[in-house]
Amino acid sequence: MENIVTDYPWTTTQGDYRNEAPQLFATSYSINNNAMLEAIKTYAKSVEEGSVTAYYKNMHGGTTASERYVFPFFNDEVRSFNNSWGDSYVGSTNGSNTGVDLLGNIKAVAETVLTLGSQANTAIKDSPGELFEPPKFYQYSQDEGPVTVNFVLINTTEAGHTKNYDLVKKLIKDNRFTREEGSPFLVTPPQLWSLTIPGYRAIQWASCGVTVSLMGSRRYVGAIIIPEGYNISLTFTPLYTEPSNYMDSTTSFLL
Predict the structure, then answer these.
(1) Closest C-alpha to 24, from 65, 70, 59
(2) d(CA 79, CA 154)
(3) Of the candidates 150, 152, 154, 153, which has an alpha carbon nearest to the alpha carbon of residue 74?
(4) Sign of the alpha-carbon dihedral angle for 17, 199, 1, 163
(5) What is the pTM of this model?
(6) pLDDT for 78-132, tens place per residue?
(7) CA–CA gap between residue 175 and residue 69 (Å, rounded)
(8) With pLDDT > 90 as the criterion, what percentage of the chain qualifies?
(9) CA–CA dist 19, 72 (Å, integer)
């Protein structure tokens, strides 16, 4: 486990006080099998099992938990989303309108009825017009933003800057794809993540964007540029629409 809150120099506070810092829990997962074949197999399994938890976990079968992290979390915004309803039924996060044909048929029938009714009523009185309003459908789009984690690592000692650099290198490597030796056209995707903001948000699968900035003066040590500190920003972007079910998992810390 990489516990940045208790084991890394992100603050000068020492002892038990660190445990009182707000924390975000995250786990990285490595992808071991062919993504397309695994997706077909595990997605079918998800449908069979019928459990909400299994449905999302099986989206990416063939993954192995690589590392568990505890990050300090001081961001103000934890949730921001809107709901959208439209005339067509968007039944998946890829934007496919799976209900368009059905809705179109319903609308066609309704318009025919209105037309016949209008023609029948014309003989009695003039009508200013007709208005057909179809039922609205909830749009299953990815409507919630990413989660951002920001923290600083202070390079005050030789042992400290070595440990800090190793963490920075690990975060960079784990979140970039890898070309396979011997078959460079084959690649291993970056790691996937699950994370929990205790009490507010749980995300089963997310991608991670990494920003590393060098702070203060810097020196050349062992063929590496070592600054006075690192400013690290991690942006976790959900891969799927988040259901309300996971609000009950926001205090369990492990997904």
Answers:
(1) 70
(2) 30
(3) 150
(4) negative
(5) 0.81
(6) 988 888 888 766 665 444 554 445 555 555 665 665 565 555 555 455 556 666 6
(7) 14
(8) 44
(9) 10
Strand-pair partners of 229: 154, 215
What is residue 13's predicted lDDT score, i.e. its pLDDT?
A: 86
- For residue 197, what are its two tokens? 């903001």
E strands along the chain, which residues?
Answer: 2-3, 23-31, 63-72, 85-86, 137-138, 147-154, 178-180, 183-188, 192-197, 201-221, 224-238
Q: Which amino acid is at 146?
A: P
Residue 202 burial (10 A CB sphere; 0-12, 13-18, 19+)? buried
Residue 56's contacts (CB-CB under 8 Å, 6 or more residues apart) are 46, 204, 205, 240
3-state secondary structure of 164: helix
Residue with tokens 């016949």: 116
Q: What's the CA angle centered on 174, arms 1 and 227, to 5 degrees?
A: 85
Asked whether the beta carbons of 225 and 164 are under 8 A apart, the reply is no
- Answer left, alpha or beta for residue 50, where phi above 0 means left and psi between -120 and 50 means alpha: left
The answer to whether 202 and 196 have CB atoms below 8 angstroms apart is yes
Contacts of 248 (CB under 8 A, 6+ apart): none
| Positive/negative CA dihedral, 241, 245, 247, 252 | negative
Residue that the structure tokens 């209900």 belong to: 99
Helices (H), 27-99: 35-49, 52-57
For the chain, how are helix, strand and coil distributed in percent, rounded to 5?
Answer: 30, 35, 35
